[in-house]
Amino acid sequence: MTDAAWESLSNQAVAAAGLLYFLALLAHLVEWASLRKVPVAAGAVARDSVDIPGGVAVATGPEDAAVEGRVRRTALFGRLGYLITWMAVVVHLVALVARGMAADPNRVPWGNMYEFTLAGTFVVAALYVVLYRKLRLAWMAPIVLAFVLSVLMVAVIWLYSPVAPLTEALSSYWLVIHVVSAIVATGAFTLGGITSALYLVKARSLAKKGPQQAGYVARLPQPEALDRVSYRLHAFGFPVWTFAVLITGPIWAHQAWSSYWNWDPKEVWAFITWVVYAAYLHARTTAGWKGRNAAILALVGMATLWFNFIGINYFSSTSQHSYAGGAAQIEVVPQR
């Protein structure tokens, strides 16, 4: 295949992945709309609890049997949405690989903001489908899919740029290690931030309405479970971010600029993000700081993370990690 054919395949795969994410979102929205007709039984867990968010009462009479039948029919939409999401993730991966193959010479697919956004949204979706059953993340489906779909639309509409070769300073295997670890950590922190935001919503709803909740919030796990899932996601992402920011990043910077640390705005904000998440995990493990305060701190961390990802590229004129508004390659200016 020619480079132009690979680039065309990548663009088509991005469009196909977006369509599949949209269909998966529709399936989950139908699922959640149908669940509004099913009563929530506190403390009861359905046999299909992985596929059905929230608990439903076990059938003991004709009315309960009808409810259970409705739940099982609704579960089909949940399984369908999860299957389509898996398909979207596979097509998304094809888009990334084709993007790298379109360059001459072939390279890693993160030479600009468009490509980095493709990679970041892929990791968020991939982590979600991989952890779906382990952490029982059925309740997260609409939020994750809406987030991935929205960011992909932004990337295609405003950030797209043609394939181009990397500059010499970026042609380093340390860049590959650095960016892969940063993207993985970003995906984990994003899922953890979403969970923390839902924790605050659930806790506020319980404080106002007690057990008389309805709709999406009623199907969310209890705040304690959300808090636990958020902690596990952040505990996974933090050492990966540490590896990216404090180990591989400085090594690559030394290769590119002959200095391990240049006080570049992106480096500074990456370190600020590390400090916030370090404070989050330290407070939880030493001071038992859980619940609302921990959730707020996690959201502060996610805000610094995404400002570092987007804000620095658009608002800083001195950063050596410049994506030029997403339309060009990273500009690396060696310093001697």
Automatic annotation (TrEMBL):
Question: Which regions span the lipid bilayer?
Answer: 12-30, 80-101, 113-132, 139-161, 173-201, 233-253, 268-283, 295-315
Keyword terms, alphabetized? Cytochrome c-type biogenesis, Membrane, Transmembrane, Transmembrane helix
List, for all copies, the residue spans of the domain called Cytochrome c assembly protein.
110-316
Q: Where in the cell is it found?
A: Membrane
Q: Is the keyword Transmembrane assigned to this protein?
A: yes
Mode of membrane association: Multi-pass membrane protein
Annotated GO biological process: cytochrome complex assembly
Q: What's one Pfam family here?
A: Cytochrom_C_asm
Q: Name one GO cellular component term.
A: plasma membrane
**GO molecular function (one):** heme binding
Q: Which residues form a coiled coil?
A: none
Name of this chain's protein: Cytochrome c-type biogenesis protein CcsB
Question: What species does this protein belong to?
Answer: Nocardioides soli
